[in-house]
Amino acid sequence: xxxxxxxxxxxxxxxxxxxxxxxxxxxxxxxxxxxxxxxxxxxxxxxxxxxxxxxxxxxxxxxxxxxxxxxxxxxxxxxxxxxxxxxxxxxxxxxxxxxxxxxxxxxxxxxxxxxxxxxxxxxxxxxxxxxxxxxxxxxxxxxxxxxxxxxxxxxxxxxxxxxxxxxxxxxxxxxxxxxxxxxxxxxxxxxxxxxxxxxxxxxxxxxxxxxxxxxxxxxxxxxxxxxxxxxxxxxxxxxxxxxxxxxxxxxxxxxxxxxxxxxxxxxxxxxxxxxxxxxxxxxxxxxxxxxxxxxxxxxxxxxxxxxxxxxxxxxxxxxxxxxxxxxxxxxxxxxxxxxxxx
Amino acid sequence: xxxxxxxxxxxxxxxxxxxxxxxxxxxxxxxxxxxxxxxxxxxxxxxxxxxxxxxxxxxxxxxxxxxxxxxxxxxxxxxxxxxxxxxxxxxxxxxxxxxxxxxxxxxxxxxxxxxxxxxxxxxxxxxxxxxxxxxxxxxxxxxxxxxxxxxxxxxxxxxxxxxxxxxxxxxxxxxxxxxxxxxxxxxxxxxxxxxxxxxxxxxxxxxxxxxxxxxxxxxxxxxxxxxxxxxxxxxxxxxxxxxxxxxxxxxxxxxxxxxxxxxxxxxxxxxxxxxxxxxxxxxxxxxxxxxxxxxxxxxxxxxxxxxxxxxxxxxxxxxxxxxxxx
Amino acid sequence: xxxxxxxxxxxxxxxxxxxxxxxxxxxxxxxxxxxxxxxxxxxxxxxxxxxxxxxxxxxxxxxxxxxxxxxxxxxxxxxxxxxxxxxxxxxxxxxxxxxxxxxxxxxxxxxxxxxxxxxxxxxxxxxxxxxxxxxxxxxxxxxxxxxxxxxxxxxxxxxxxxxxxxxxxxxxxxxxxxxxxxxxxxxxxxxxxxxxxxxxxxxxxxxxxxxxxxxxxxxxxxxxxxxxxxxxxxxxxxxxxxxxxxxxxxxxxxxxxxxxxxxxxxxxxxxx
Lengths: 342, 326, 272
Description:
The complex is a heterotrimer of chains A (about 350), B (about 325) and C (about 270).
Chain A: H1 2-17, E1 25-32, H2 38-48, E2 50-57, H3 60-69, E3 76-77, H4 81-89, E4 113-114, E5 117-118, E6 123-136, H5 148-151, E7 161-163, H6 167-178, H7 187-200, E8 204-207, H8 211-216, E9 222-226, H9 227-236, E10 240-242, E11 249-258, H10 265-274, H11 278-288, H12 303-306, E12 319-321, H13 327-341
Chain B: H1 22-66, E1 68-70, E2 76-80, H2 83-89, E3 90-92, E4 99-101, H3 104-135, H4 139-150, H5 157-168, H6 173-180, H7 194-217, H8 222-230, H9 235-246, H10 248-263, H11 267-273, H12 280-288, H13 294-320
Antiparallel strand pairs in B: 1-2, 3-4
Helix pairs in contact in B: 1-13, 2-13, 3-7, 3-10, 7-10, 7-11, 8-9, 12-13
Chain C: H1 4-11, H2 16-37, H3 54-60, H4 63-94, H5 103-115, H6 118-136, H7 142-167, H8 171-178, H9 183-212, H10 215-220, H11 228-236, H12 243-271
């Protein structure tokens, strides 16, 4: 028993002692899981002699909860569009003025005056994408041009659909199908959306974010998902196709921002500038498989990705960024969601 | 039947002086009691302090949150309100704006409750024989059996859950095997059903039933069992009248350690159940996430905990009375 | 104890042996699948297509994995040792004693963490540590996570120890006292050894609970403090490769090795 304790203490002491040596400067990045190219980090570390740590989160909400309480130790976070807006409104972000940085000229103009950071005073584009759905066309050969496939599927697809376990994505998609405005507070419209959801639920097999596995394991034939995920599915199963719907599609963008009170603000600013360089942006895209919003990056990408259908929407389709809904509407969404999943 | 008479683990009390000094004897007894009491507090202090500071204080924060208003995008606004508690049972109807009794949350609580009870029952039914088996192995072997039982749990729970999914999904190992052997024509749907959830919960919580049971059974005085047989009792009778009552502490411990966490289980039911139905864990998490209603989440949790606390309190009162002194 | 032959015969119950074996098979089957698929040559976890050890190579050189494993080990071992010691002390004071004032409250307090849904503990602890950081400037680094784990490990360690104590035959301790052993000697040489199965069960449970914890750790972990469950959870969201199987198998192997070594040491000590 005593020897056992001794042994345990030795293990703890040894492992604790193996801490990394401190470098010139540090940078603590908090990003989505599987979203950061290790090569990008290496390049940044070498170029600026900074030691970078990278930790993962799985949702904006988790990150927001942690950051809101403060004192997290992170310098950089990568919130989605609506989360950036919330964080700016609550004073959680450092105003680093990316619009005044050297590489800012590379940012695609259509992403400069965005609803969450008009003029880009806080955040820099990381990746952006679309959310509709993907279909294994080997198992389903019918039309896939409308978001209605998720809500009013043909007989053969019933019970073979996965939708995202995401209140906003799903409800907004239903709103598009019902042709009512996003974040509508009109009671009649909301009832319409509620009915669509209730009617569609029996056709859904699962509610899950693990869309890639659901597809590759054969659990479902159709899954609501993001274009980058669809690209990865296609690599595993060549017959997978991403739907570019005739209704306006959900667009989103993840942005690099610096937390207020971060210890390593200067290094964080360097990082923000660093990723606005087309070559570096290409590194990000090559890993995460989404487009990046920096002009001139496509020529650094391997052609099979640069020309992939997932990141090149056909003419005639459009996408929209959706701001967070006002609290009263969120309350109603919440009720609808509980009602849907009870 | 013989039951182990319990005595306080202190040395034999000091013998009192001559009969005339009765009050002195009482005083001595009192001093001993006080010393014993102080010692008990010292023994429980580390656990109490740790749980007190890092368990209870944070909880108080949550209690306070439940009586505040929700901030628009998550977090709380420091103005008091009982909205959260009211909305547990009464919601404004979406379309008529009246305050209506809404059983939604109760339904979700009931579902979790049923799953927890089911899991506990299955863990007990399968865990008791397993623990008993382990406890009746030759003493040298016993540690190996404990090892054998715990090894599977030294792999990460998530990965094990994935392995389960791999086995039971429609195009998974089990179905392919059965179809290949010609036993069935169509795959049996096991994944994303209630069965999958119970299986997953059983898998996560089995050691929490087996280990306390084993700890209790291992020290069972089998001479009592022998005595039972000597009195011509049948095997089932010996089991139900001797073994089970004597291992009651282990059974209770196991049931508590399975039931209570199973009530609030979050990740495993989510992954295996397919997310089609909310359970308490997911419901509460939702409030701290895109639901943006921290007070409601806090209130839901506190309501759950109060129910469990009340049940636990009654159990404790009932069981401490059972301790006899030698 | 009963004589060998008669005892074994009488102690068995119908079907118990079978059920135990079935349980073990059910428990081990997914583990087996896990290990088998770690040598899968195919990129996809779901399809088997040949043998390869490339995933083990990947896992060996995976720095994030090393870091996460190291953190998890430090946290789990510390929390286990701490919680088992605290729980043992508390169990001794609250079991088999004449009911004392406050005993019930102690029991409730110790078991309170068990009753709190994980997500609530997570948010509460996050808020609490943030408060500590803001007002008192206290931040224990990875100690924060260890403290949080200690709290919920204590009830898991406590219950089996208490169950064991309640079932224990106290005549031995009485005998030791009669033989003029001091309370401490009685405790160390009689009570403790008898209590060991309870303590090891408690420690095993505490370790499992800490090792697997996801929800709470997710919200409290700071930079560089990722643990295995967090790391694996994020890996799951990617197109899964058998690397995750290789990682799990390696962990399993290390744990088994570790336990076997400590067992061996214990046996040697007993013999020596």
